[in-house]
Amino acid sequence: MRKRIKKYVLIFLGIMFVILGVIGAILPILPTTPFLLLALACFANSSPKFHKILLNNRWFGADLQQWEENRSIARSSKIKAMVLIVVTFAVSIGILHGRLQLQFGLLFLGSLLLVFMWRLKEAKPILIKESDIKD
């Protein structure tokens, strides 16, 4: 009985984290990556079906697969995320013209997110030898 309850609680939390991650892709204040990683962990322990769906998602599945395999992220994904953080927070700070406390709050939050992203381990690039390439 406890296993069944735990399973449904983890599935519910996983779905909530996916929803928050999707909202985070739209709103600059809410981070996407941590919520999707939490959802992946919840589904790994409760629903192989949802876990597989998340890993095979066309927008963020490859990055989640890479994270699950070796706890790293591709440099290109890392750079895209950091550029997106800078752009969205800059726009948000610009919109809040005249509200200095909110602007500083966003600046602080954006800086935290950039530090978090900067510290993520980068995947090692795959080197292909000429002998591996077939004509």
How would you portray this structure in words?
There is one protein chain. It is built from 6 helices and no strands. It has about 140 residues and is mostly helical. The chain has 2 domains: about 70 residues; about 55 residues. It is globular and about 55 Å long. The N and C termini lie far apart (about 60 Å). The mean pLDDT is about 85.
Question: What can be said about this structure in brief?
Answer:
This protein has 135 residues and is an all-alpha fold.
Secondary structure topology:
Layout: H1 2-26, H2 33-44, H3 48-55, H4 61-70, H5 75-95, H6 100-119
What characteristics describe this protein?
135 residues; mainly alpha; 6 helices; 71% helix
- Shape annotation: globular
Instruction: Look at the structure and give the mean pLDDT.
Output: 86
Number of strands: 0
Strand-and-helix sequence, N→C?
Answer: HHHHHH
User: Helical content, roughly?
Assistant: over 70%
Total count of domains: 2
Largest sheet: none
Task: Compute the number of helices.
Answer: 6
